[in-house]
Amino acid sequence: MAWLITGGAGYIGSHVVSDFQGAGLSVVVLDDLSSGLAKRVPKDVPLVKLDIRNTDEVAKVMRENSIQGVVHLAAKKAVGESVEQPLMYYDQNVGGVISLLTAMAEANVYNLVYSSSAAVYGSPGVAHVNEASPNRPESPYGETKLIGEWLIKAQAAATELKAVSLRYFNVVGAGDETLGDTSVNNLVPLIFSALENASAPKVFGDDYPTADGTCIRDYIDVRDLSGAHVRAMQWLENSATDYEVFNVGRGVGVSVKEMMQVARKATNIEFEYEVVGRRPGDPAQLVGQVENAHRDLKWQAKFGVDEMVTSAWQAWRAAHD
Ligand code: UD1
After folding, report:
1. Residue ranges of the domains in the chain?
2. What is the mean pLDDT of each successive set of 10 residues along the chain, which is 321 residues long?
């Protein structure tokens, strides 16, 4: 018996692999290696290079490895790219979930933990969003994540499937120097990349209706986030409910300017940042209410922003030196 981690060679997926192994579970990684790295997968973990949309092959992998459950992370995740290439995002992310659910039904696999996103909320206009807050995604990326949730919920209602969707907030950090985020799409890697190029990190707008004028987000350490998947897997085993959604964040808002200060401390570089115009589509504030995960998953984040950014910097340095 083993758990299949799709996208297990990715930044978040490789941390999930590590935590599942730490919980004493056997894991198999399925990844097309389009952005994942084979070297992130431990030597003792089978790595199957496969596109999630290849339903028959995915079902075969499930049967051959006696898969008991799936953590599904294999997806495209860059918001800007999704605006430029919506069909590709729908094909990969929505097509991916349909294919996965079909393969799971064929192979009689009934447990699923799904990687969703706070992007399903869009610009909420409230201080903290809870799982019942309206879903108004503002990019094709967010739409595909929400449609994935709907597909899974419907399949859980119709079949024996039990599933949990985890809505990740802003993920930062690294559990180990080899597992850092190699994509340069998000605030913290963009700060590091600017520093590496001896240029000033950019703040996208300081005229938002927030205390210091910059956007507020709920930053969560990848080590805490991966732990939430283990708890979600345990919840599936013990709960009578078919389907549930949980926000996975710290429930603490941190502004971009505050993150710049954290990055100065973590890198030990006294850099100046440059304030530029707003980036279209950025909500002023997106922070989660995370009480449901505390109560039901018995999960709580442990790491703060200093630890997140310090661990991310160590991994960045190891990858770039
Ligand atoms: C990110 C992810 C999104 C995910 C969401 C979960 C991207 C592009 N976005 O959104 O997939 O679903 O978290 O909540 O992958 N900023 C700057 N300067 C920069 C970069 C960013 O000021 O150089 C600001 C942004 O305006 C924003 C904050 O930093 O206010 C965080 O931005 P980012 O890391 O891109 O994440 P989100 O857009 O919040």
Report:
1. 2-169+219-248, 172-217+251-320
2. 97 98 98 96 98 98 98 95 96 98 98 98 93 96 98 98 98 96 94 96 97 98 98 95 97 98 98 95 94 98 98 95 78
Ligand 1 pocket test, pick from 186, 261, 279 with the greatest ligand atom count within 8 Å of Cβ, gives 186
Residue of 116, 128, 138, 170 with the most ligand 1 atoms within 8 Å of its CB, for mutation: 170
Q: What is the dihedral of CA 257, 259, 261, 263, to 10 degrees?
A: -140
Atom index in ligand 1 nearest the CA of residue 279 equals 26
Architecture category of domain 172-217+251-320 in CATH:
Alpha-Beta Complex (3.90)
| Predicted local distance difference test score (pLDDT) of residue 26 | 98
Say what the pLDDT of residue 55 is: 98
Q: CATH homologous superfamily of domain 2-169+219-248?
A: NAD(P)-binding Rossmann-like Domain (3.40.50.720)
- Please tell me the distance from the alpha carbon of residue 249 to that of residue 219, in angstroms, as a whole number: 7
Structure tokens that stand for 134 in this block: 């309206």
Nearest Cα to Cα of residue 244 among 161, 153, 119 = 153
Whole-number Å distance between alpha carbons of 150 and 173: 30
